[in-house]
Amino acid sequence: MKIGCRKPSKFEWIFCLLLIPVGIYFTDLRHYSQTLSSIGLGGGVGALIGLSWSRYRYHRLSPEEKREQDRMERDERNRAIQEKAATFSWRVLLFALLGAAVLCMEIQISSASLCFALIVLGVGANLGAMAWFRHRM
Amino acid sequence: MTNRIAELRKGRRISQAELADAVDVTRQTIISLESGRYNASLLLAHRIARYFGLTIEEVFLFEEDTP
């Protein structure tokens, strides 16, 4: 499957478009909500750019390549791999969140660094799990 | 669960890509099915069996039934 080369779903567009107003809403509020503002605005705009780029690349494919790409998304083995990887990375994140909550109570740590670390952990766990299950299946 | 997909495919001189196109999966899925690393869903098993003109039991063999 070509990475960054697919038709984004309606849900993904809506999610990005909702993040931006959330970011704008938190901009003028109290100091510690700047993190939420950054996540909303930065995440929303960045995701919109990424989805637009993915859609552009998809529409540049030939009809045969589009058909092949669509089939890869529909393929049951690929879906099974993604679901298993999602379940695994969700469990990893759940325990990481529990650990983060304990750390927050014991140590003074900035929420932005913690959010960033959790995002990196979640994405890393998901990609690693997908590679593992793709190899095993 | 084992299967006779590779045997049936080679007997009819069909490539993995052609079989994948016919049953609407990727070639990698066919490879994984033939090597036994992946078990097909009921729907995919039905499509494959119908493509070969056989029943599911004639294409896919449960380990208890394997001689």
Describe what this molecule looks like in 3D:
The complex is a heterodimer of chains A (137) and B (67). Chain A is mainly α and 137 residues long. Chain A contains 5 helices and no strands. In chain A, α4 packs antiparallel against α5 (111-136). With 67 residues, chain B is mainly alpha-helical. In chain B, 58% of the residues lie in helices and 6% in strands. Chain B has helices at residues 5-11, 16-23, 27-35, 42-52, 56-59; strands at 2-3, 60-61. In chain B, α2 (16-23) crosses α3.
Reported for the largest beta sheet of chain A, the result is: none
- Count of beta strands of chain B: 2
Kindly give the count of domains of chain B: 1
Distance between termini of chain A?
16 Å
Instruction: Give the rounded overall mean pLDDT of chain A.
Output: 80
The rounded Rg of chain B comes to 11 Å
- Mean pLDDT rating of chain B: 91
Strand content of chain A: under 5%
Shape of chain B: globular
- Share in helix of chain B: 55-70%
Under CATH, the topology of chain B is which?
A: 434 Repressor (Amino-terminal Domain)
Largest interface: A-B, 10 and 12 residues
Main β sheet profile of chain B: 2 strands, antiparallel
Oligomer description: heterodimer
Q: What proportion strand of chain B?
A: 5-15%
CATH class of chain B: Mainly Alpha
Radius of gyration of chain A: 18 Å
Helix content of chain A: over 70%
Topology:
The complex is a heterodimer of chains A (137) and B (67).
Chain A: H1 10-27, H2 34-59, H3 63-74, H4 76-106, H5 111-136
Chain B: E1 2-3, H1 5-11, H2 16-23, H3 27-35, H4 42-52, H5 56-59, E2 60-61
Helix pairs in contact in B: 2-3
